[in-house]
């Protein structure tokens, strides 16, 4: 079933994590609290498939893990929106390989279109315990996104800095904003913006949204995108502003705790 745009967002969210001792088995989290959860919006075009029949097959495969929604930016497709999950639960329990295998077999398209994107949401509550801490993490993420623009463009598989759906916040490439006060002052206009079409969308109350990625039906690319976003967050949480501004790509990449991002970067020649 294809819900109207953001209509399924009105329904209650179900948060998932992995059961201990049972690899790949999901459990429902009753109280998400300040834990880190991710969610993905994958835009696809139906291609040679019937749009509604394809959405029914997505529903049959994913069950309660995802819903399908219409999107006016797509020609004859829909977006697949996953329920929030911890990163390990998404990577290991969300049937990403099965989903992409089915979509490819049915003739769907994503990367090879001019319309499809892949968006990754990360829970805002997990960024820190105060507004200032969360703002500081977001500001450091913008520093990293500016610093590693070339590498992120390679992973995103599109020029995200020249795209009307992923505007870039400029001015985060300097080395002088090495204090909380200075960086927060630079971040203030970003925080107050009501334009969701930024590479890092800050307008949602519950999540920050990474919008840089081109759509894909490659399972490794989807997992790598999620792993990249988590690594951007974790690095920003655990390193000072001077460390963020001075780090190298290899230093940053070495902190990723999951295999697909490193594998994907190696395949694309930026490891």
Which characteristics define this entry?
single chain, 271 residues, alpha+beta, seven-stranded mixed sheet, 10 helices, 9 strands
The span between the termini is: 40 Å
Identify low-pLDDT runs: none
* Order of strands in the sheet with most strands: 1-5-6-4-7-9-8
Supply the number of helical segments: 10
> What share of residues are in beta strands?
15-25%
Overall 3D form: globular
The string of secondary-structure elements, in order, is EEEEHEEHHEHHHEEHHHH
Secondary structural class:
alpha+beta
Average pLDDT: 92
Percent range of helical residues: 25-40%
Care to describe what's here?
With 271 residues, this protein is of the alpha+beta class. 39% of the residues lie in helices and 17% in strands. It has ten helices and nine strands. The protein has helices at residues 51-62, 87-93, 96-105, 131-147, 149-156, 180-192, 219-238, 241-246, 249-253, 259-267; strands spanning 2-3, 15-18, 26-29, 38-45, 66-69, 77-82, 117-123, 200-201, 207-214. The strands form two sheets. A seven-stranded mixed beta sheet has the order 1-5-6-4-7-9-8, covered by helices on one side. A hairpin with a 5-residue loop joins strand 8 (200-201) and strand 9 (207-214). The mean pLDDT is 92.
